[in-house]
């Protein structure tokens, strides 16, 4: 019986980790985001960079605001991905998505 329940969703990869780590293959992120967000993300369709190989790569793309360069990832998918990355503990909650992260503009448009 696993004694460590850290609140992360279980995932069924072969990496052997209970928690999704940056070293996990990108497939592990299927556990924390809908396929509609995961699939274009994993393929990096139309993006000027190679598809992410690991969960850490995805976190990096997110933090560098490169997700918006992937075709098919709108605001909603963006949110699903950021939520998944937060669930997995790969980014901290409150990391603002979008290219205007450095600014202090409140994106209060719901
Ligand atoms: Zn894994």
Describe the protein's architecture and organization:
By secondary structure, the protein is mainly alpha-helical. The protein has a domain of 62 residues. 28% of the residues lie in helices and 0% in strands. It contains 3 helices and no strands. The longest helix is centred in the last third of the chain and has 13 residues. The radius of gyration is 14 Å and the shape is globular. The termini are far apart. The N terminus and C terminus are likely disordered. Bound molecules: zinc ion. Zinc ion binds next to loops.
Distance between the termini: 43 Å
- Broad shape: globular
Number of helices in the DSSP assignment: 3
Main beta sheet: none
Written as H for each helix and E for each strand, in order along the chain, the element string is HHH
Summarize the helices and strands and which ones pair or pack:
Blueprint: H1 35-43, H2 55-63, H3 75-87
In short:
The protein is mainly α and 110 residues long. It has helices at residues 35-43, 55-63, 75-87.
List the main descriptive attributes of the protein structure presented here.
disordered C terminus; mainly alpha; globular; 0% strand; 28% helix; 3 helices; binds zinc ion; disordered N terminus
